Protein: 2-aminoethylphosphonate--pyruvate transaminase
Organism: Mangrovihabitans endophyticus
Amino acid sequence: MSTETVRPPRQILMNPGPVNADERVRAALTGPDICHREVEFTELLDRVRDRVTRICGGDDDHAAVVLTGSGTAAVEAAISSAVPPGRGVLVVDNGHYGRRMHDIAQAYGIPRRLLELGWGTRIDPDMIGRELAADERLSHVLIVHHETSTGMRNDVRAVAAQAHRHDRQVIVDAVSSVGAEPLGLRTDGIDWLAGSANKCLEGMPGLSFVCGSRAGFADLETLPRRGYSLDLHRHYAAQETAGAPAFTPAVPAFYAFDVALGLALDEGVAARGARYARLAERLRAGLVRLGFRLLLDRDDRAVSLTAAALPVGISFATVHDGMRRAGFVVYPAQESLADGHLRLSTMGTMTAADVDCFLERLGALVASAPTGETR
Ligand SMILES: *Cc1c(COP(=O)(O)O)cnc(C)c1O
């Protein structure tokens, strides 16, 4: 078979979300027009909130608040709502999204201590303990679970254990891990977990969520409000008590998310993680054969994303444009890695055949790249 004829039947998204979704998820988008303050939406909202809570490893003592907005909205809602006045945050920064958590706190004038570890550097949980012991003011630790800028999976459980030992809380950005990486409100001791519909949960873009304990949500009522439309207690009260969202929701995205969550629960987080891991292993082995260099130690790598250095002499633009023509979207790296690196997601309905096709086309591209091209 000539490589020119090998082309997937659909565009394969290897950007880390939105992902190629199951046809049943897409079909759900065309559900009926409904009013979000009538019983049909209340039932849908209750079911979605319950399913999200279960995916996050919560039980009857936990709840979810679903927001219309991207993953950043959920992270921002948690940070801006949970930190009491006069207290501050300890931010673990080992990539782009850790820094974003810091920048959100900064935008709200929340005092913060930034632990700038360097991209792809493993966290020392004892250091978290020492920092917390040294500053009474810090009430929350902010940490990213899967740092999508490098593909690194951070040890949230160890960091949460340190936080709780010092009687503090953790806010976790699990946007690119929830649904595929093992992580639980109960098992990992997470106080606030922010996630979104369109990454490992394989829903459509437009929805995100914050999960926490019911007691934690209730406690927010006593705190002064920093924001309005991202005020977590406002959303909790509306969704929990009134059974309706505070503001107009993205109804079609809810239809799709409901179906996507059903599929995720049927498959199970462990099985989905194993499916992504098989794709990632296949992809990584192929990349190494083609002269790409993988980032991070094997144990630190998340299943849903692979970051790699391009072979010398091959530019990102060459790979991007060539693979676009072949039906694949590859993703650039950010900031310090922007030069000479790329990122490839293994989320969504991608198959082993898609990965094989990708590697075959990439191999042809690398072989035909003009020598002497700089990266
Ligand atoms: C994708 C992502 C986000 C949120 O991005 P949005 O564009 O707001 O959906 C936040 N944190 C991490 C780790 C992510 O991967």
Q: What stands out?
A: Residues 201 and 264 are 6 Å apart (CA to CA).
